[in-house]
Write the structure tokens for this entry.
Amino acid sequence: MDQDHGHINRRQFLKTAGGTIVGAALATGSPALIAEQTYSPEYPDDLDRYDFLMPRVKYTHEKREVDKWNVRPGGDANLLRELSSVIRCKVKPIRGAYDWQPQWAMEGQLNAVVTFDSLEEIKKYPFLFMTGENHYKFDRKQKENLKEYINRGGFMLMDDCVVGSGGDFFYKSSYVLLEEVFGRGSVKRIPHEHEVFHNIYDLGDTGLPYMQRQNRMLFFGRRRPQQASLPYMHGQNHGARGVFIGERLAVFLGSTDIHCGWCDSHGYEFGRQNYEKAIQMGINIIMYAITH
């Protein structure tokens, strides 16, 4: 890190500060095209204090009563805690959130919050996370900023969050949005052989983990156990999809609720193994994003 040049490249910093586990994965990482900022020791901000942040994208849903853009910050908190235990870098924590609580993030609780209304706002961050449950649309300016952000080297993880009897509405809206912005046929299947499934943890056999609620057995006195009826579902498995800029995977789109998986550290909903797989997938995605 050379402060004399007046800029800090966040991905380059991780490349030099990461632990030995990540060293091999970072060895081929290219410099970030975005996420550079003027170094200001007198007035440091979070990009100076921390090596990695995971901003949530704030956007407008078509319905207000469903899970919103800021749903379940405990999932973000769990992932970032697990990430910081794998690599030696300073990750900004999310306070007051763990597993499924609270349902929606409080003001200022998330790692960072951005919108696509301003390119200046989003271009500071090499990685963005967007989740939700319902249909949504971007206006013309937001679409332009999304395209510019991705073409400059940014990365976005988009994960459909399905609860209740809802459908894969966020996934469908995201699919349409990406094809409007990057062209018809631009959303492609990510093969299991792709590096994003192998760089830190080997998930090539299964690809994107699928969060299915575990069947539970209820006991009534001495009667035989009965399977509980499941009032809702999670995840719809369309597999991993993405937008590629050249050979670089720039947008990762999933509908299997890995974010819900991050919330389930005790394995009550999906089982402990699914929690671990969801966390591993999240770490793989982050490490791919900051090295390409």
